[in-house]
Amino acid sequence: MSASASQSANLPRGVVLAGGLSSRMGQDKAVVMLGGKPLVHHVIERLAPQTAGLSVNSNTDTGLDLAPAISVFGDTVPGYVGPMAGVLSGMRHAARHFPVASHVVTVPIDTPFFPADLVARFQAAITGPGQIAVAYSAGIMHPVFALWPVALADELEHWLVTDDKRRVRGFIERHPMAKVEFPMIETADGPIDPFFNINTPDDLETAERWLQLIEGMEQ
Length: 219
Hints:
Blueprint: H1 3-9, E1 13-18, E2 33-34, E3 37-38, H2 39-47, E4 54-58, E5 71-73, H3 83-97, E6 103-108, H4 118-125, E7 132-137, E8 140-149, H5 153-162, H6 168-172, E9 177-181, E10 185-187, E11 190-192, H7 201-218
């Protein structure tokens, strides 16, 4: 096995969480245009190099134009029960199609500026097989930016169908957790939270401004 193949084998499967209703945006966030291309493409391009391959969790038929290797699947628990349904679906998909994968990493569809070293820092923070690595910035938890053991799938499914609140933080706090703090993106216009999420048309206008700043810094 080559060095690059060995490195890829140690990476988790990536899951883009796009299964929500996008009610505040008024349309499927995956196809919202940012900087001339769909938001889903921004997120995929940022996550793909950090993983051993990725998929998209979506419950709508929007005809996403994705590479053939990127599969799209809906929630295994029906009823739009929240982002943890997408996490569970990602675990089930990985276990079925990539049984060597011990972890999946999840990112939401509406956060295009997340760190390029997200997965590497998650993996470095993990010290035990049952641990969940979770992103923080400025001391604030971003619970759907996380590295999840696939072995938690059965427990997560039971929690989804029995817990009334289904708070992501609530599930995470039942397990050993590695808190991974990420710095702000320092720009000429001031600091930008790398986990800024686009919920409304006004947020999209802000993201358009910030995209130019951030892309200019990363080139």
